[in-house]
Design a protein that fits this description.
It contains 3 helices and 12 strands. By secondary structure, the protein is mainly beta.
Length: 174
């Protein structure tokens, strides 16, 4: 488990006064409006740098963020492609049965019929639900719908997800 949680990706500069455009990677983009202390980092949390959010505002599905000490477009442009992350203490509180994607990555996936099938390498939204991408030894990655009917037990502390894969899914990726 990482100590940082990624909440957005900086997609570029906005205007000439140092604002950046952020694509939110959180269920609640309005959380940026109260953001103060955060970090910028690479996609795997590399090179985290503390930064202070001065202000934020919503803009057509994105968030425009102004950081302290980022005073012009050139400085803002240097942040393009970096991610905004917060510490777990500053992360939103999750409802029971909800998880941070960072916590799911690395969990073993154990199927009722096949035993351990692989390790979660990613989780992404696919329409109405999320999908787990599971890396297997020397075979194509497996995509499993992350819904209670298939993934019925998640144990972050013990490092596993128990599932009952849909009929025929495993064979699709053989």
């Amino acid at each position: 488990m990482e100590n940082l949680i990624i909440i957005g990706k900086i997609t570029g500069a906005h205007g000439v006064r140092g604002e950046v455009k952020v694509f939110p990677l959180t269920d609640d983009p309005r959380r940026f409006l109260k953001l103060k202390d955060c970090f910028t980092c690479g996609p795997k949390f590399e090179k985290p740098e503390a930064i202070v959010c001065q202000s934020a505002r919503m803009d057509r599905g994105n968030v425009l963020v102004k950081f302290e000490n980022v005073l012009d477009r050139d400085k803002a442009e240097l942040l393009r492609g970096r991610f905004i992350a917060v510490t777990r203490d500053n992360a939103v509180k999750l409802k029971k049965g909800s998880y941070f994607i960072a916590d799911l990555k690395g969990l073993k996936v154990i199927d009722d019929d096949r035993g351990e099938v692989g390790v979660v390498v990613d989780c992404f939204e696919t329409g109405p639900q999320f999908t787990l991408e599971v890396k297997r030894d020397s075979r194509k990655n497996l995509m499993i719908p992350f819904v209670k009917v298939y993934c019925y037990e998640v144990n972050i502390e013990e490092g596993y997800i128990k599932c009952k894969m849909p009929e025929g899914l495993y064979e699709l990726y053989s």
